Each structure stands twice: as C-alpha cells, then as structure tokens.
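User: Design a sequence. Structure:
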C-alpha cells in the first residue's frame, strides 16, 4: 500500500496511469485511472486485514477442529471473516 500511495494519487493521472483500456494488451475491461486505483487500494487493504487476522483464524480452526466437527468451526470462522469485512 505504501508503494501505491507514494507513487500514485487517485486524482492525478500521469504517464504511469493505472487506467485499463479495452483491447489494449488483451484487456477485456476498461477502467479509468481513479477506478483502478481504488480497486487496487481496496484489494490491498482487504488483504492487509486478512493477514492481520490470519493467526487468529488458523488458531481458531485448529483448536475447534481437534475435538469437534466442521459444523462447529464454520460459525466461528464466519464471525471472524465478517469482522475483517466490516473494518
């Protein structure tokens, strides 16, 4: 994220634009620089939150899985994943 926010700004398009043009380089999509910047930023933010909670998620699954079935693990995993998405 630091690299993205250091070298690009959502409202400043220059020669290193993040825009995607349909048909260019095999692209099937078209996005403006700002749209692509926001997509990349949100994706990186989501992965940062997931990685921050990964140990908790792994520990929760490991502890619950030992003596109980998967049906008891899933609700706890869903709560943790929901927490990540609401950040």
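Assistant: Done.
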């Amino acid at each position: 994220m630091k690299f993205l926010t250091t070298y690009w700004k959502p409202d400043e398009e220059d020669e290193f634009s993040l825009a995607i043009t349909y048909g260019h380089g095999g692209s099937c999509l078209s996005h403006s620089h700002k749209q692509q910047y926001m997509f990349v930023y949100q994706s990186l933010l989501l992965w940062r939150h997931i990685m921050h909670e990964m140990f908790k998620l792994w520990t929760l699954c490991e502890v619950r899985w030992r003596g109980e079935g998967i049906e008891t693990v899933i609700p706890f995993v869903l709560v943790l994943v929901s927490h990540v998405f609401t950040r």
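The helical segments are 2-7, 33-67, 70-85. The radius of gyration is 19 Å.
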